[in-house]
Design a protein that fits this description.
This protein is mostly helical. It is built from two helices and no strands. It has one domain (6-51).
């Protein structure tokens, strides 16, 4: 049986908060700007991959 360290639990909580914020934020963005938000996510994701 494995045990989670406090650091792992903190990272899981942080990831959950960021994930929920991303979905809520994208919904608000799509409502305001329409389908162009999806294109902006694609462009931003491509830039992040290139920088990595």
């Amino acid at each position: 049986m494995t045990h989670l360290t406090p650091r792992q639990l903190t990272m899981m909580g942080l990831g959950s908060a960021i994930g929920a914020g991303l979905f809520i934020g994208s919904g608000a963005g799509i409502q305001a700007a329409g389908p162009a938000v999806l294109i902006s996510y694609l462009v931003a994701g491509t830039l992040i991959i290139l920088v990595m």
